[in-house]
Amino acid sequence: MSSTELPSVPPANVLPKVAPVRVEEGERLRTVGLPGVTLSVRSRPPAREGLPPALYVHGLGGSSQNWSALMALLKGVVDGEALDLPGFGDSPPPDDGDYSVTGHARAVIRYLDASGRGPHHLFGNSMGGAIATRVAAVRPDLVRTLTLVSPALPEIRVQRSAVPTGLLAVPGIAPLFTRITREWTVEQRVRGVMALCYGDPGRVTPEGFRNAVEEMERRLRLPYHWDAMARSARGIVNAYTLGGQHGLWRQAERVLAPTLLVYGGRDQLVGFRMAQKAARAFRDARLLTLPDAGHVAMMEYPETVALAFRDLLRDAGQAPEGDATARTAPGDGATAGSARGEVRGVSPDGGPPGGGARADGARPDGAQPDGAGLDGARLDGARPGGADADASADAGTGG
To answer: Which of 180, 305, 307, 338 is deepest in the core (most CB within 10 A)?
Structure first.
């Protein structure tokens, strides 16, 4: 191993003890042992028995906590679980040290297969979006629908604000960064991450900020934290360079599942300009654009994303019985918050979308704003477009 590479980390059974991971009221946390990986899985009991399963996959530097708000809002339509990818959250590193997009996708597939619950509604954010795309392409039998929030799909012109995250992939950069930032307080680190990932960091509640600081403190005590970050960042960069049938855009074209794409207009890590390209790439796509959102719309505007997902289920004929959430007529938006979005179906040839609809957002802490809950706010305009059928305020919410 060259001197620029990160050192190996000790086995999981000799890792130091750190503070327990935060579990929201009503959530459960369990550990699942699989070949080559041990995964921490967060869940919330569904509103009733018999709901279809869902799995949430976080991004680089994130954890299952990134999905707590959305998972709570969707407990009436899916039986949801959110996993910590190997080396993140409360999951130890993978036995083989493989942090590539394919390696992470393999861990997700192993979990889905082992669960024995059949096809899932699969969610992914950022790196998790790339992972979920690969899973849906290579194992369509495991995926009912696909929801991608700012998916990390290859961009030719990367935003300048995303360059530092990409530099983590360069051997030697992570140790250099840790030396340069040795004097930074945990609070400074959290503010930096929030400034990068949120459209408006000022909307994070004081409690959310305190929780993020606690989580960052916990992570920095893990000896493999920077190793997992650097190697996963390298995995994203490597995935961007793959061509042919293994390229992420080619795999997006192979996805059969009805797909909801969510993009934020203030995203500093995934270019907002990629929204239309993604909507044309996926065969059966709906696009939700949130001009005021950043990189983690499911944390900033969970109610708007939840409404769009319910629309996806209805359009795909998969809405569970008893889900009577209303839809608006085009142009009739709820007035719950400041992130007015648009949901629309997109044809694969880039033609005009279906009827547009505005959807106003929700508070980033997941609380329902006055007078507008899932039963009061409505969405419209999302139609299957394809002619074929083919940082809770968690500190780590990176690419």
So the answer is: 307
Residues facing residue 137 across a β-bridge: none
Element (H, E) at 27: none
pLDDT bucket at 284, cuts 50 / 70 / 90: very high
Torsion of CA 208, 209, 215, 221, to 10 degrees: -170
Measure the N-to-C terminal CA separation of the chain; round to a whole number of Å.
27
DSSP notation for 274-340: HHHHHHHHSTTEEEEEETT--S-HHHHSHHHHHHHHHHHHHHTT-PPTT----BPPTT----SSS--
Tell me, what's the pLDDT at 244? 80
Written as six digits, the tokens of 248 are 């992420």
384 compared with 293, residue with greater pLDDT: 293
d(CA 310, CA 328): 13
CB under 8 Å to 398, separation ≥6 — which residues? Answer: 59, 60, 61, 62, 126, 127, 165, 193, 196, 197, 229, 269, 391
State both tokens at 3.
């001197």
Tens-digit pLDDT profile for residues 173-221: 555 556 666 677 899 989 999 999 999 999 899 999 999 999 999 999 9
> Could you tell me the pTM of the whole model?
0.79
Cα 247 to Cα 244: distance, rounded to the nearest angstrom: 6
SS3 148: strand
Q: Which residue has the tokens 């009805």?
A: 258
What are φ and ψ of residue 342, in 5° steps?
Answer: -135, 130
| 1-44 per-position pLDDT tens digit | 333 334 444 444 455 567 788 899 999 999 999 999 999 999 99
